[in-house]
Recover the amino acids of this structure.
């Protein structure tokens, strides 16, 4: 029964991915259709002698997409309040809800409190990351701390560094249920994998921590270091000249400090 | 009478212990947070979530029927497990004997369940052409009814799944027919369970 349930959930995840992909494909089809319409309109104009002028009287060329509406575009707004949840207030709410028997409300309050704590942890880790790495400067606007408060997806912290066409993205994932499978993968893989004589990934060490480095011609380098039981750091490097350059960039990070902040052993 | 009294005292002490666990975790969370120990505060909050899931699971168990048609509940198999990982809280009850055991499983507060709602919004996926799967409605909630036939015994087993936002109720009835399954599920207070697990 449980196997059937897990298979159903896995199928549901595939379906969701498929629906998302279908959405993208639908948009691509719409764009292609619009382009085809424009080309057809041009041909009609040529045939009827309206070359080079699509705005003659009596003939309107509709340049708007087929699905345009009269909906106004948003020009401004107050955005969303970005204050993290008040941890102590939510813990007090949880206590009150629990005592009154509203377990659902108590659960929600605890989740909000957890969200607040995770965001604080995330901000601490983000502040500890270097300002620049191997000549690449951090992009302030791309700094990100994300927590769902679920307790399973955990916390992710992300920072990007750029210089010309070179980019390094550092992602720290913490307290995620995925980590146990990542650790198993890293512990059980062989030393390396070769395809047609080219090395696609291998085990390495970053500041004495076991890691796996991968390389792909289209996406560049990817270096993953598991930390403790439930955390992971991943660096993705685009247009790094060599494996050594990538390793040097990763060495700029205080991995032990990050591990301590995340409560890992 | 004496046995009932002993069971009542045991249940009461269990609930007191549970209450102390939650209160202790809450106290730990507050003191850890105030002293700046964020990781310990988070761990204590995860314990609180586990405690609450168990409490919610027990309340849901009280809502489940004590029998399914002629099949009596197997009280010793009642189970509530809390896990703040993928599956949230798991609640299990079964009825009848091994020849025909009707099972109810509820997965509460699981982030994975949201994906199942996508199936319900797509009739061409929810309803299969060969009649082994179709969408049904139970007390206003959409669900998916699946049928599987054992080729050796020729017996048909039905599985009814009703997603309730981030929770999933599953009813499995072996050696049955659609009418019986729908009759059984009508005895489960789906709406009340939905309110409790959300």
């Amino acid at each position: 029964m449980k196997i059937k349930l897990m298979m159903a959930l896995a199928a549901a995840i595939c379906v969701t991915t498929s629906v998302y992909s279908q959405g993208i494909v639908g948009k691509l089809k719409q764009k292609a259709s619009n382009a085809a319409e424009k080309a057809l309109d041009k041909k009609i104009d040529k045939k009827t002698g309206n070359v080079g002028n699509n705005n003659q009287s009596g003939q309107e060329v509709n340049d708007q997409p087929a699905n345009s509406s009269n909906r106004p575009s948003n020009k401004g707004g107050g955005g969303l309040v970005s204050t993290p949840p008040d941890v102590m207030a939510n813990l007090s709410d949880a206590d009150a809800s629990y005592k009154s028997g509203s377990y659902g409300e108590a659960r929600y309050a605890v989740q909000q409190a957890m969200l607040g704590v995770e965001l604080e942890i995330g901000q601490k880790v983000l502040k500890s990351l270097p300002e620049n790495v191997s000549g690449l400067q951090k992009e302030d606007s791309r700094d990100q701390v994300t927590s769902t408060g679920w307790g399973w997806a955990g916390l992710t912290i992300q920072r990007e560094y750029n210089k010309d066409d070179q980019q390094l993205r550092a992602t720290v994932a913490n307290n995620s249920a995925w980590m146990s499978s990542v650790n198993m993968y890293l512990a059980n893989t062989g030393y390396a994998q070769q395809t047609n004589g080219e090395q696609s990934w291998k085990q390495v060490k970053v500041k004495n921590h076991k890691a796996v480095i991968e390389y792909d011609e289209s996406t560049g380098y990817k270096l993953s270091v598991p930390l403790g039981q439930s955390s992971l750091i991943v660096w993705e490097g685009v247009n790094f000249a060599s494996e050594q350059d990538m390793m040097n960039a990763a060495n700029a990070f205080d991995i032990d400090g990050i591990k301590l902040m995340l409560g890992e052993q | 009478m004496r046995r009932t009294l002993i069971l009542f005292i045991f249940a009461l002490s269990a609930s007191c212990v549970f209450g102390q666990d939650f209160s202790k975790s809450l106290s730990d969370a507050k003191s850890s947070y105030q002293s700046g120990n964020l990781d310990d505060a988070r761990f204590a909050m995860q314990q609180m979530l586990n405690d609450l899931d168990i409490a919610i699971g027990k309340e849901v168990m009280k809502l489940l029927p004590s029998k399914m048609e002629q099949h009596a509940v197997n009280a010793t198999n009642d189970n509530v497990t809390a896990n703040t990982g993928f599956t949230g809280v798991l609640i299990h009850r079964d009825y009848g004997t091994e020849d025909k055991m009707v099972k109810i499983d509820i997965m509460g507060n699981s982030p994975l369940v949201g994906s199942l709602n996508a199936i319900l919004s797509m009739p061409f996926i929810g309803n299969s052409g060969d009649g082994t799967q179709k969408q049904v409605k139970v007390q206003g909630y959409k669900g998916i009814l699946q049928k599987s036939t054992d080729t050796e015994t020729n017996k048909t087993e039905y599985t009814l799944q009703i997603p309730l936002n981030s929770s999933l109720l599953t009813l499995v009835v072996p050696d049955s027919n659609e009418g019986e399954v729908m009759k059984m599920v009508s005895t489960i207070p789906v709406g009340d369970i939905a309110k409790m697990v959300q």
Remarks:
- The longest strand of chain A covers residues 155-163.
- The radius of gyration of chain A is 26 Å.
- The beta strands of chain A are 132-133, 136-138, 144-147, 155-163, 166-174, 192-195, 198-206, 209-216, 220-227, 231-238.
- Chain A touches chain B at residues 1, 4-5, 8-9, 12-13, 15-16, 19, 87-88, 91, 94-95, 98, 103-104, 106-107, 110-111, 113-114, 117-118, 120-121, 124, 148, 150-153, 175, 177, 262-263 (CB under 8 Å).
